[in-house]
Amino acid sequence: MRPVEIGSVVTRVRWLNTPDKYGGPALFDTPANARAHAPSGVITARLSLATPDGRLVELDGGVSTADPIWRTPTRQDPGVLPVVGARLVAVDDRDHVFTNPDGGDWVLIG
Asked: Is residue 2 over pLDDT 70?
């Protein structure tokens, strides 16, 4: 699999809740709706991105501001969540660092 290039842009954000026991996983438009599905489930982000070379790709991972089960990376700004239009600015090991259109940074933990 080719890595996602710096400059890729988020075109869609969905939130996956994976319950620990009883319900099946499900996708939602907001972290709050995902949490309501199963309060004890793990919330991850599913991002659709457009790459500079025109490919469409998906990335899944944790975001510490959406679910405290994830570690808080040093480049994660407090309270910042993924939004459409965010741009990939760095890849550090398996973490992807994005900047939202308003300037806030967030990290997708891989």
From this structure: no
Q: How far apart are CA 59 and CA 50, in angstroms?
A: 11
Residue with the larger pLDDT of the pair 10 and 92: 10
| pTM score above 0.70 | yes
DSSP-assigned states of every residue in 59-90? EEEB-TTT-TTS---TTPPTT----TT-EEEE
Sign, CA torsion 61/62/65/71: negative
Residue type present at position 27 = L
- The stretch 90-96 carries a mean pLDDT of 91
H helices of 20-66, where?
A: 31-37
Centroid of chain to Cα 25: 16
